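Example: Phosphatidate cytidylyltransferase.
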Amino acid sequence: MSSGNWGDLRARVLSAVVMIAVGAVAIALGGAVWSVLVVLVTALMIWELARITAPDDSPEKHIAAALLAVLSLGGMLIQGGPVMLLALFIVPLGFAFTPRRMKWVAVPYALAIMLAGAGLVSLRVSGVTPLLWLLAVIIVSDVAGYFAGRAFGGPKFWPAISPKKTWSGTVAGWIGAALVGAGFHLWAGTPAALIWLSPLVAFAGQLGDILESWLKRRAGIKDSSNLIPGHGGFLDRFDALLLAAMLVFVVQHLVYFRAVGAF
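Written out as structure tokens, the predicted fold is:
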């Protein structure tokens, strides 16, 4: 192995260790510590998306988008209440009314990032178990999909968008996710609904991975940024978690609104 490759591997491993350690401590502590971490990562994702879709804008405009994400998501978390959910639409609206590439993707993607941030905080409020379930679904579905795809191959899932993903790997990811849901139901006492929800969450994660890869290809870039040594950017690392957390947040609130008779 060349010294350059070894340096890349070392940076990748060290970054992974730091991310896991910081994430584990924040999840364990919960409360303000977890919320601040989520808000920070959400803002950095918005910053990356702003740079990808409006590369000709000044750095100050990209930073302004990130600060707006901090204010809107932070304000929603501090104030609380269903009405404050509207604050999550501020950043996407900013994307909609400013010149940028691929606006038809950038605007909903910005909304997905904001909803995911709110979802990750909301899950931790309910305890550690729901958050661990979400992370387990993403990790297991990704690992199962990788090995099944390598072992069985077969038809491509979406060749025009993601040439490497196969149907065998995709379905294996769903099966692995369902097993995670069943395991949490049996051993952690979570609702049985997680058994069927888990594959949907896994599918959302798979779409998140595909979408981010497509966005980078259209923009002609390899990584969303270089903020994480050896890994690229935060969108590169958390693309699957992003859409999965967004789906869970939406489902949570649909259940809540139905429970209170909103529809």
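Residues 257-263 have pLDDT under 50 and may be disordered.
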